[in-house]
Amino acid sequence: MPSKIAYLAAKRSLEDRTLDRGVWSQFVAGLEDRAEDSLRIVEVGPGVGSMIARLASWESFSVPVSYRAIDLDPACIDAARTQLPAWLIEAGYTIDNRADRIVATSDDGQRFEITLETGDAFLESDEADAVIAAAVLDLVDLEPALSDLRGLLDDDGLLFAPCTFDGATKFAPSHDIDDRIERLYHHHMDEIRDQPGSSTGGRDLLRVAPEAGFDVLAAGGMDWLIRPHDEGYPHDDAIVLEHLLETIGGALEDYPTETLDPADLEGWLDVRHTQLECSELTAVVHHLDVLLETGAR
Ligand SMILES: C[S@@+](CC[C@H](N)C(=O)[O-])C[C@H]1O[C@@H](n2cnc3c(N)ncnc32)[C@H](O)[C@@H]1O
């Protein structure tokens, strides 16, 4: 199975292609509207730093950006410290790698000051103009998490939550037990895994946001579409697909044999792995990209 780090790095390119650009544009315009002397962004669960790299590569702001990224997993933060300078150099930045931060400056004067920290971002963040939580809000208890994030933001702060899983994991070509595999996989997210979270995180977020003091500014579908082209899978999409199959397999192993015969699971996984190796497997995984703004307290 590809490591979590390899998987997170691989999905950067897939998400570059699948993010809802309308929601992204509103987020970036909202950041610029809030830019005074600087922009303070906190990222919850940055993984290997893909969102920082994306923002620095795609956008430019009229003020310096102070970017605090906090992940629970020290392996992610170590990987981000290694990977991010290379991604920023590729995007045209000059890097000053200091003991406590990465300072990235572009030729046209854009400056990012980035701190990468290990910890619980819901407890350890400080005030920000915007919070980013990419592929995170489907992994937490949503109501307390939103309440913590509301506390970090001023009255017109932004919360950008792209890639929030939203209840569809489909494969082609079809297989007789696809529906059962999908149902049990999603039920595992909702009821069985140790971690909190939900298989309908995107829709839950839209429902819970107003009660938590947020207005919904924009929302759109973000489907990972992973499909083979003439020469196999583009970019690192095969790594993402392999990780998805292994994640489903790992989750479904938790069911008792009366619920899912291990031979059925093994048979399904064998077929899917063979199709992946032969570049014949397509997957569609549905998420929502959501942009929220804090309302008056
Ligand atoms: C699915 S990964 C997404 C990583 C990254 N945002 C991306 O989209 O590539 C979720 C990340 O959230 C982190 N995470 C989960 N709960 C967290 C918390 N309470 N504080 C900080 N990080 C957290 C995990 O360690 C993991 O790296």
The largest β sheet comes out as:
9 strands, mixed
Q: What's the CATH C level?
A: Alpha Beta
User: How many domain units?
Assistant: 1
The count of DSSP E runs of length 2 or more, i.e. the number of strands, is 9
C-alpha Rg (nearest Å): 20 Å
Bound molecules: S-adenosylmethionine
Spatial strand arrangement across the major sheet: 3-4-5-2-1-6-7-9-8
- Low-pLDDT parts are none
Q: N-to-C terminal Cα separation, in Å?
A: 46 Å
Structure class: alpha/beta
CATH topology: Rossmann fold
In short:
This protein has 297 residues and is an alpha/beta fold. It contains 10 helices and 9 strands. The chain has a 9-stranded mixed β-sheet, sandwiched between helices.
Walkthrough of the structure:
This protein has 297 residues and is of the alpha/beta class. It has a single domain, classed as Vaccinia Virus protein VP39 (Rossmann fold, 3-Layer(aba) Sandwich). The chain is 42% helix and 28% strand. The protein has ten helices and nine strands. The chain has helices spanning 4-18, 21-34, 50-58, 74-90, 121-124, 142-152, 178-192, 201-208, 237-252, 262-277; strands spanning 39-44, 65-71, 93-97, 102-106, 111-118, 128-132, 153-172, 214-226, 282-294. The protein has a nine-stranded mixed beta sheet with strand order 3-4-5-2-1-6-7-9-8, with helices on both faces. α6 links the parallel β6 and β7 (153-172). α3 runs parallel beside α4. The longest helix has 17 residues, at 74-90. The protein is globular and about 60 Å long. The mean pLDDT is 96. S-adenosylmethionine binds at residues 8, 11, 44-47, 50, 70-73, 76, 120-122, 134-136, 139-140, 163.
